[in-house]
Every structure is written in C-alpha cells, then in structure tokens.
# Entry
Amino acid sequence: MPLLPASFSATTISRLALANAVANGLIVVTGGAVRLTGSGLGCPTWPRCTSASFVATPELAGHGAIEFGNRLLTFVLAAVAIATVVAVWRSTRRDLRPLAVLTFLGIPAQALLGGVTVLTGLNPWTVAAHFLVSAVLVALATTLWLRSREPGVGQPLVRRPFVLLTRGIAAATAAVLALGTVVTGSGPHSGDVDDDDVPTGDRMGFDPELISQLHADVVFLLIGLTVAMLVALYATDSPDRVRRAARDLLIVELAQGVVGYVQYFTDLPIALVLLHMAGAVLTTAFAARLVWSVRGPASEVMTSPSSGGHRHQVPSPI
# Structure
C-alpha cells in the first residue's frame, strides 16, 4: 500500500500552498520579535545554540528561549514547504513546480544567511538581507497559492501599459522594503540587548533622519502609482479581479503608512515596530496578488483589444 497518493487534489494543493504562504509570513513576524526583544544573539553561535548545546540552556534565560524558538519555527516552515513540493510534484500542475521548489530552496538559504548573521554579531547588512529574502519568499508563496486556485496561467486581462504600471508598483514595493531595512538598521533596534549603547546611525553609516525621509518619499511614490493604477482601472472598465487587487493593496499601503508615521513620531515603540513589520509582509503579499491578477486563468476567453470587445474571465473570489 503506497504511503502517498498517486496524485493530490487541487484543494489539497491549495491548502498546503496557503499554509506555506502563512508560515513564511509568520516567521518574518517572529523574527521581528527576536530582534525587537534584543534576542538576536540569545543563541550566541550557529548551528548550535551554544558551543556545547543545540538547544537553549537555562543560563541563556528568556533571550535564548526566544531565539531558539524562532529557529525551531524554521523546521515547521520546512515541513510545510516539503509537503507543498511533494503535493505539487504528484499533481498535473507542472506550472506550479518552479514556485514550489523556489519557496523550499529559500529555507536552507535563509538558514545559512541566519547563521552568518549570528556569527557576524548581527551585522546590519546581513540582517537586512535576511529580511529581504523572506520578503521574496512571501511573494513567491503568495503567488503559488493564488495560482493553485486556478487551472493555469492564461493571457493578460489588461493592456500593456497596465502591465508595465503593475511592474512599476512591484519595483516600488521592493524599494520601500529595501529602504525600510536600512531605516531599521540605522535605528535603535539592533537585535542585540548588549548593543543599545551604539549610537543610532553608526551601524550602517546613514543619517537616520535622512534615510527615513527617503523611505517616506518612496512610500509616497508607491501610493501614487497605486492610486494611478486604480483610477485608470475604473476609467477603462477593467476586470474586477484587477480592480480589487489594486484597491486592497492601496488600503494596506495607507494603513502601513499611518503605522509608520505614528511609530516614527512616538520614538519607535516595540509594539508598533512589530505591527509595521507585519504590515510589510501584507504589503508584499498584496503586491504579489496585484501582479498575479493581471493575467487570467488558463481557461480565459478574450476578444481582441483592437475589436473593441469586452474581456470575460472566470469569476475569482480573490
């Protein structure tokens, strides 16, 4: 009797893909909690927690437990990713295989990068890279889940200028995330409880106020592009799924912007910084959803744009 079914259902694949996306988002938030509680070196070495133990010892107290707990979550994420790869590989959905494999390969890559981060004493550049790789994995896992809900990838639902604008929004989102890591790395939350006496700005060599302003400027650019996209979509009677994706992304961006400003003017309280990190995960996921939305399912039936006909797509709940 086989241990695994010959093929997994579309529902099973979709559920595993959703669990994979959620797990990738949660580990970003828990990683933020490690940093904000000063537990980044709670386990002072890698791959062991201490030179003599793979697990946190009582001497490491709460910081060791927090850091080791986050390391354990990596194994949960790996299990979900492996299950997703197996389910996709045993299905007929060959188009999902690259995404499933990439989300899995990102986990050992992240583990190694996390080890380098610990061994270099929380170098701010490796900390930033650690977060950005996680953001890429969130985008890939979100796209995998959304694609798993449809029979395949079809033709574009909108004209080329909209596709290009969507790519611009994705690029602006990436820039916002990258600058956000520099803002955090230049601020007071280094991740190490013993590093609080390092002057802000000295870790990455940037003026915190200047880099914060640049970050805010790119956020305004991102919001402006999203507003332009949404207005143009309504003005041209575009598909509902693209409109919803742009609308929801704008809502997340505005909420994230409010949290960002409040945390800045209240001296970066830990709770708000953690909420802002969760918002970064949502922004990444919703930006990925917008990119996904501009192409219809494989069963898409479209008339030629030059004929003046309307586009019709399979209804989507997303």
Notes: The chain has eight helices and two strands. Strands lie at 153-156, 295-297. The first strand starts at residue 153 and ends at 156.
